[in-house]
Amino acid sequence: SFCRRRDLPHEASAYFPKSARAADLKDPSLNVMAGSLAQNAIRSYAHDDHVAVKMRLGDFLEKGGKVYADTSSVITGGDEASPLIVTLPKGQKVPVEIITTHNDKSNKSNKSRG
Questions:
Q1: Is the model's pLDDT at 43 over the cut of 90?
Q2: With b meaning 16 or more CB within 10 Å and e meaning fewer, what string describes 34-43?
Q3: Which InterPro entries does this entry report, sorted A to Z (predicted)?
Q4: 3-state secondary structure the chain
Q5: What is d(CA 31, CA 26) in angstroms, rounded to the nearest whole number?
Q6: How many CB atoms lie within 10 A of CB 103?
Q7: Which of 14, 30, 69, 85 would be 8's cystine partner, CB 3.0–4.6 Å?
Q8: What percentage of residues in the chain have a pLDDT greater than 90?
């Protein structure tokens, strides 16, 4: 699910996710933010019946998941946080850490699609 920029084939920055809208994907998806300021960008979501979680994108890719740039996101984080959409094949799990907005301890869990 990554497209390669031909002008920088040997640099990590040469790989960017393809763009997509969650509504256009056939598989269930999860909206995520990536980057050094991702946690700040999603902080407003962690309230009431919503939780914010932290996970490794590499775990999704290792389990056959796909990663897309989220073109329909209303949240932008500039250069330090990028909105993404991730998918995970049915029956696969990746470890997640619940991010708390207070001084509570974080919990470990598994996000599964099944």
A1: no
A2: bbeebbebbe
A3: T3_effector_HopF2
A4: CEEECCCCCCCHHHEEEEEECHHHCCCCEEEEEECCCHHHHHHHHCCCCCCEEECCHHHHHHCCCEEEEECCCCCCCHHHCEEEEEECCCCCEEEEEEECCCCCCCCEEEEECC
A5: 15
A6: 5
A7: 14
A8: 8
**Is residue 6 assigned to a domain?**
yes
Sequence-distant (6+) residues with CB within 8 A of 22 are 29, 31, 70, 72, 85
What is the extent of the structural domain holding 65?
A: 2-100
Q: What is the pTM of this model?
A: 0.64
Q: How far apart are the first and last CA of the chain?
A: 22
Instruction: Say if 14 falls within a structural domain.
Output: yes
Q: Is residue 109 part of a domain?
A: no
Task: Please tell me the total count of domains within the chain.
Answer: 1
- Torsion angles phi and psi, residue 79, rounded to 5: -75, -20
Q: Are 30 and 59 in contact (CB under 8 A)?
A: no
Q: Does a structural domain hold residue 61?
A: yes
